Amino acid sequence: MKVPDLPAIRKAMGEHRSEILAWLQAFVRCQSENRPPTGMEILAQDFLESACNGEGLETKGFLPTEVFGIQKHSYWLRGREYPRGRRNIVARWPGSSKTTGRSILFSGHADVAPCNPEDWTVCPPFEPRLLNGRLYGRGTADMKGGMTAAFWALKILKELGFTPSRDILFESVVDEEYAGGNGTLAGRLAGFNADLAILTEPTRMQVCPCCLGAFLGEITLRGKAGMPYMESEIPNTIVGAARLVEHFQEWQTLWRAENSHPLFQEPGKQPNLVLWGIRSTVPGEFEQMGVPLLTTISWIVWCYPGMTEAQFALRFKRFWEERLSSDPVLAPFSLDIRPTYHFVRPWETPADHPSMKGLLEAYRAVTAQDPVVAGAPFSCDLGVYGDPGNMPCLILGPHGNNLHAPDEWVSLEDVYTLTEIFAVLAARWCA
Question: Which CATH number, 3.50.50.60, 3.40.630.30, 3.40.640.10, 3.40.630.10, labels domain 6-209+349-429?
Answer without folding.
Answer: 3.40.630.10
